Protein 1
Amino acid sequence: YLEHSPCYLNVSLSENKCAPFYRRLVQVSEKVDERKDVDLGLRESCCAFNEFVLCKYVHVNQDCGQEAAIFLQRHLDRISSPLLQEHCAHYTYAADSCATSSSSVSYPFLHFLLKNVISMLTNY
């Protein structure tokens, strides 16, 4: 991890790389309102998270090398995959995934989960 951390940080914070996706993810998480439509909130959160993670994978592979990309992918799979796949599978894997929604997951729980994963991602 320490070997790759400066490059991970650069990818996360660079305006030409993933910083815009990170800001969008933070904005989505900050506008959580429990009275809001659960499906809409879930879709926004899952799509924003997926965009940020995909950006990280692409730029880490390009800028930090394949070894760093493999480490990042394994780490993210270990810390987030089971829960995110359960809650975000429709928005991650379905065609037109971020255009429609059909879930009944507890949005406050997902918000809590995403905030923790976001925090971990910014450290990588």
Note: DSSP finds five helices and no strands in the chain.
Protein 2
Amino acid sequence: MTRTTQRSGWAAIALTAGLLLTLGTAVPATAHEGPIELEFDQDGRGGVTLLARYVEDGHPVTEIIDPVATAIAADGSSLDPVKLVSAPEGQGVWVSPEPFLEPGFWTVTVTVTTPSPASSTVNMEVVVSDDAPPASTDDTGDAGWLLWAAGGASVVLIGLLVALLVVRSRRKTS
């Protein structure tokens, strides 16, 4: 076996190992399943804002869910169920389409049936303020892109290393 063939073999092995390492550690972006948790609170306008996340990894639920809020006042009276809608603030965020809670003490329950059943109940005091800011989220984002970027950078670096080794080996044999 010549030196060029031997070096090319090592370069191929290094490239294959790098690809396997990169692909083996990549986390599929759509591989979410399992239980979800619901966190919500009033939005300062008489509505609610809901954050839905997967329990296992904390990522926001990006699938279609069907959140419905029910509310019981301190005096025992209840409101008709309100379907929450996906919010433009970010993935995994749902809001009431319009205010439905009057000022006072409420027990609010939000329930979903898909992608997995979940329910959460919060006792809250609703104080409606005319100057309340729009509902905001504490969405830290999905760090999955970081893994893909690191994997892509690894592939590029390994490719450059292989190219460098091939060029070096050809110069030495010429």
Note: The domain at 36-141 is CATH 2.60.40.1930 (Immunoglobulin-like).
